[in-house]
Every structure is written in structure tokens, then in C-alpha cells.
Fold this sequence. Notes:
Elements: E1 28-30, E2 43-44, H1 49-62, E3 66-72, E4 75-81, E5 88-96, E6 101-108, H2 117-129
Antiparallel strand pairs: 1-6, 2-6, 3-4, 4-5, 5-6
Amino acid sequence: xxxxxxxxxxxxxxxxxxxxxxxxxxxxxxxxxxxxxxxxxxxxxxxxxxxxxxxxxxxxxxxxxxxxxxxxxxxxxxxxxxxxxxxxxxxxxxxxxxxxxxxxxxxxxxxxxxxxxxxxxxxxxxxxxxxx
Length: 132
């Protein structure tokens, strides 16, 4: 890991159907946030949820900056490392089959501002994932 990797934060994962809340700083997006900078739409899917999350895992695994850390039938966690300085962002996906969506949280480990990196990453993933 790079000089600016930071430490893996505590509290990641799904707790009572929710991903870790976004901090008040503008360096995280979370589809379970209701307002402010962090608010972003969850990923939509059609068909069977577990198959959709498996397809999402294949997409994330294929991304050059990503390293999948954990993959379960309802949860995916990956670390994304920036090319030049080695900053690490934690990206989580939670399959909420009741709601018919995949929730997402993407957060920078270090710094108080991400200059839109996490939002752009999620939108890139959304485009690649599609809705098939």
C-alpha cells in the first residue's frame, strides 16, 4: 500500500440493514444518506438479487484500481487505490432484496474532501453495471 493508504476504518459492513453512515465531511457518498453531499442513488437491478451482486463483483474485480476484500451473497467490500499517491477509498455494496436495490457507500480514508472522486467512481460503476 502507498504512503497515503491510511488504516481500514472500524465499523464497515452491514449493521441492522445499514452501511456505516457518511461523515459530515465531503469525502463520502452513501445511498442510505437522506441529504447533503453524501446522498447518492442506490444501484438498480433486475432479476435475481444475488445474481446481480455476483455480476457487480465481477465488474469491480475487473477494475484496475480495485481489490475485493470481502464478497458474501448480500455484501461486497473493495478497496480502491489511487495510482499516483496510493490513497485508499473503501467501497461497500449491500444487496437489499426487500427494497430491490444495491446500496453503496464509497469513502476516502484520509482527508476531508475527495474532489468528487467517490461520486464519479460510483457513477462509473453504475454505468458499467447497467440494469440487466
